[in-house]
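Review form for a predicted model. The reviewer records the input and the model, then writes brief findings.
Reviewer: anonymous (R2)
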Amino acid sequence: MSIDETNEVDRQKRRADLMDVLIRAGLILALAVLCFEVFSPFLTLMAWALILAVTLYPMHQKLARKVGGKQGLSATILVLAGCVLLIAPSAALMNSLADSVHTTIEKVQKNEVEIPPPRDSVAEWPLVGKKIHAVWVKAHADLPAFISSMQPKIGNIAKGALGMVAGIAGGLLGFLASLIVAGIMMAFGKGGAQACLAIFERIVGPTKGAEFAKLSTATIRAVAQGVIGVAFIQAIVVGLCLLLASVPWAGVLAVIVLVLGIAQVPAILITLPAIGYIWSTEGYGNVEAIVYTVLLFVAGMADNVLKPLMLGRGVDAPMPVILLGALGGMAVGGIQGMFVGATLLALGYQIFKGWVVDPAT
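Model under review:
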């Protein structure tokens, strides 16, 4: 065989090998896309389950040692305790809200609701005082006619409120499902940890794999602990504000704020009805009502400021990196994005730092 014929055979072989590689790569890409399409409906649930499993795993291990090393029993106890702590306050809140709405509707239909006349000082409020005073006078003079005149707006508000309640209920159900899946992950935690470590070692090598796996775990736990810490602080602040304003059941409402805060449900759902109670009760002057309204509104929104400040403690990455990752992730993907963003930016920072120190890595 001549040299030209040999070169031609080599070229044909290389073309055939390249075609095989392209076909295989295309099939793998198609398989990956199809797998993602199948898995995408469960992506949020599984991500939350992973976050909960990583966060609760140390507690799970302590409990497992107390029950004779039974991983399944320990995970079951944690899941049941979490369900009880989440369901009981949420059910009490929803039941109370439903009773209040039902009672209010009945009173309005029977024309038993009496709106007290507004004080003259209301009209002196800056910017909106005159409008509020005029609307208040109409509601006091003839409430049924006022409601009829506001019917389209009331209908839109009711639809929005119903959608918000449905969204909260769906979020709580999703959180419960994630907690159950997290329990399964914790029961098989050792095997899962080894699998994650193997994935990191496959991607970044055996030297950096363990370090990156540890960093990811620490970042998720730090962010989660920051969320829980913020929930405790906000519950205390809201409880103190409710006590200061003499709102009934302040302690119970503070506990509900704590549980809802851990489940990432906004505390303003508690503070807004409390503000409504203050304005509908005759025992408060205008100045007192305004002060308590500002305090409760700020307390209900405090988590938006506290979360970035408390994230990333104890992580082998600078606080600004964790803060930027959490804020950017929250802007893109909400509360779940906060965990993902902080973890990704911490890993990216470590990779960049390692490349700067030793470019060979």
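Findings: The mean pLDDT is 77.
Further findings: The two ends are 47 Å apart (CA to CA).
Recommendation: see findings above.
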